[in-house]
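Please decode residue identities from the backbone states below.
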């Protein structure tokens, strides 16, 4: 009798215009036995579709339905530079999470893919945008047919200043730009940000933003 049998492997389809980026993503998949890559012509069968793009804006998101028009397709977007898309528009197109390329280690990639596919109940370590995947909270169903309904039951609430700061960070603003926009000092912005990180028990600003957006707090 075998000592260990792997179950719940996640079928992952990859799309990346840059050959080197695609090779890197394929390498991440190959590193983890819980993931297996599906060829492009089997994208409809994927539990999670990973799409790499430098700038995530409306034209970039319009590519997603052309890649897979299944109504329950679940996308993980790997962003190289900036997120510029509307959160609601992204959700309508099936985006369940975003990982910034700078943070995309093999571990972050695997946890994010499995979360998008509905196979993990823990909190991912990656920054994630938009609010789309509520892992283990406020969901109905399992796997690819999970639907996001409402806010997580145990998510801490943020105050209005924390929401404003995290939303602007999610839009790609730097702290000095946020200070100007909100008429705060940069020191105050940092204080607000650290308060939000403490409240959400996140490790850095990107993780805080991703957690808040995923939970529907911003």
């Amino acid at each position: 009798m075998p000592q260990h049998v792997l179950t719940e492997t996640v079928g992952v389809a990859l799309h990346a215009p840059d050959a080197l980026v695609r090779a890197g993503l394929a390498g991440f998949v190959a590193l983890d036995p819980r993931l297996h890559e599906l060829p492009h012509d089997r994208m409809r069968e994927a539990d999670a579709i990973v799409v790499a793009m430098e700038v995530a804006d409306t034209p970039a998101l319009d590519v997603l339905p052309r890649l897979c028009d299944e109504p329950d397709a679940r996308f993980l977007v790997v962003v190289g530079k900036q997120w510029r898309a509307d959160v609601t528009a992204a959700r309508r197109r099936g985006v369940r999470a975003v990982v910034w390329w700078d943070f995309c280690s093999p571990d972050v990639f695997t946890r994010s893919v499995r979360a998008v596919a509905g196979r993990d109940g823990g909190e991912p370590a990656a920054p994630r945008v938009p609010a789309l995947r509520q892992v283990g909270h406020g969901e109905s169903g399992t796997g690819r047919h999970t639907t996001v309904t409402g806010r997580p039951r145990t998510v801490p609430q943020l105050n209005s200043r924390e929401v404003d700061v995290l939303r602007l960070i999610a839009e790609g603003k730097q702290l000095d730009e946020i200070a100007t926009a909100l008429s705060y000092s940069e020191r105050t912005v940092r204080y607000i940000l650290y308060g939000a990180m403490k409240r959400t028990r996140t490790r850095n600003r990107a993780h805080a933003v991703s957690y808040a957006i995923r939970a529907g707090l911003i």
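Observation: The chain has two domains: 10-148, 160-214.
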